[in-house]
Input
Amino acid sequence: MIRKIAIFCTIILMVSTTPLSEVLKLPIFIEHYMEYDKGGLIHYVVHHYGGHEKDEDWETDQKLPFMDLSSVLTIVSIAPTIPLTLIPETRDFKFKKPIIKHEENLMDQYLSNIFQPPRLS
Output
């Protein structure tokens, strides 16, 4: 399944990045290969696409697909710049006043107990 997905993605990539005019030149490639008698397909491709010098069939060689590099796919992407500012961490220490119980708020039963809340003097 993964192999089929990989093949499908490769075909989609090739179709989207290859110009149709180069695909239409494939019959010229096959016809010229049939006339070529100096070796196999690998030798043919290396001879025509890897540092080719002028010979008697130079005009036919220039009609082969992907010989003209003028139409190259260029993808330009611009990444947005996000300004980064560091804000120093500030802590506000607010001390709260301690809560002191007033005697008028206390109930009578707490006044008779030994352990009593602090009193204002």
Observations:
- The mean pLDDT is 77.
- The first helix runs from residue 2 to 17.
- DSSP finds six helices and no strands in the chain.
